[in-house]
Fold this sequence. Notes:
Chain A has helices at residues 16-32, 84-102, 111-118, 130-135, 138-146, 168-177, 182-190, 204-216; strands spanning 47-48, 52-53, 59-64, 70-75, 194-198, 221-228. Chain A is of the alpha/beta class and 233 residues long. In chain A, helix 8 links the parallel strand 5 and strand 6 (221-228). The longest helix of chain A is centred in the middle third of the chain and has 19 residues, at 84-102. Chain A is elongated. Chain A starts with 15 loop residues before the first helix and ends in a 5-residue tail after the last strand. Chain B has 244 residues and is an alpha/beta fold. Chain B has a domain at 71-150 and 189-240. Chain B has helices at residues 27-43, 61-69, 141-149, 151-165, 171-182, 203-215, 228-240; strands at residues 3-4, 22-23, 50-55, 75-82, 101-107, 127-129, 134-135, 138-139, 192-197, 221-224. A five-stranded mixed sheet of chain B has the order 6-5-4-9-10, with helices on both faces. The mean pLDDT of chain B is 78. The chains are: A alpha/beta (233), B alpha/beta (244). Chains A and B meet through helix 1, strand 1, strand 2, strand 5 and helix 8 of A and helix 1, strand 3 and helix 6 of B. Strand 6 of chain A pairs antiparallel with strand 3 (50-55) of chain B. Chain B: Pfam families: ExbD.
Amino acid sequence: MGKVKIKKKSTLIDMTAMSDVTVLLLTFFMLTSTFLQKEPVTVMTPSSVSEIKVPFTNCTTVLISPEGKVFLSVSGDADSTFSSEKVRAELIQTAVAEYNKTHSKQVQLTQEQVSKFSKLNMFGVRIADLPAFLDLPQAKQDEVIANLSDPAVGIPVDDNKDLTKPNEFQIWMRAIYNSSNPNLEAAIKKGEGIAIKADKDTPYNTVHDVLDNLQTLKMNKFSLLTALKTEND
Amino acid sequence: MAQIEQSDNGKKKKGAQKKMSIHVDFTPMVDMNMLLITFFMLCTTMIKSQTLQISLPSNEKVEQEQQNKAKESQAVTLILDTERDADGNVKFDPETGKPAHLIYYYFGKPEIADEDHDGRIDNSNLQVEKFVGNVNGETQGIRKILHDKNKTVLEKIAVLKADWKDKKISDDEYQARAKQIRNDSLITDRPVVIIKAGPNASWESLIGALDEMQINQISRYQIDNINDVDSLMIFDYLAKHPRN
């Protein structure tokens, strides 16, 4: 009786090829990724057939939550002369100075607070509450912003046609328009500089306040953020 | 692949080094890469948002009056509304499963005459439609209404589009010529659309209406505020056609 010889086979699998593929994939994702911007509320934008893309630079995004809270996000130039951080640092100083002109309760910011603000991607608190808000650590800031029922959260937008006494939203928008970065103003004039982002179920009344304020500021051209759909939907 | 084998060309030298196969196990490396990929995949936004560019009329009154005078015969007024339940959540249309957006519309001037004094408008020209989109390639709902209104322009653009699809004209040329046709003042039946959104109308319905302008190649449209006449007409319409 001859014994049946079972050949011993190594179970080792060569992982080199697999490794090659994963490294390639990794490189692809690293290069193409733009990180999700942190936003205080998640909104589902409605869809449209328009194929114009949002610009990355020199764009102000106005985020409107379904409750009517308004948040702003400003991005500067790709160039370092007017980088987002520099634009934001200048912006908060102009806005606060403007605010102090019309309000008896003065707001003062330290250098540290300004630099902290310049790193914020999206902001939305009353100017009077800004210094206290900026002193909070990052995690606490997120917590404050997430509480949408708090009256301190959201940039106040009320119906105001009198530009000698601008509301806070108008102060911010004017500060953006008049910033020393000429590209921001040019983008706003072209209609690419302001993007409005609102949830699809938000009542028009809520969005209307923002549109009305922009009209009062004579910023009549802007873009509305949408997702893509096909003509047949 | 991962092992380096030293070949000795068949010759054996004395004192040659012992043949060694250097085998590197790549499994941990792959594990780590996979983790990194997962991280990047979850953190990225691949789709950039699209934008719809609009310009609102300025707030100055004079200009608005002039705009209102713009050819009444070609005016189409759309009044948007969205059905909501008691909590303010958007209702869904039982037939289509889409959000229940209603579009009230009328051509030309609003009719609000009440000759027989019964508290109802005699010949209201207000009608209602929905966003349906295309069904089997045919325009439906409000799109059909707007499509029929802007027929001349759409026919001309369809010819142009055929040329563009056959690669007879370039992309840029197509865009430029389509724009020229949209704004051609010699085409007299181009509509002027006035979009008004009611307080309950959802943002989606407004975007939807603006989208219809793009799809139907309508170049003249504006967003306006709802006024008393419009609310009166809707009120009258609802009184005549009670919703169940």
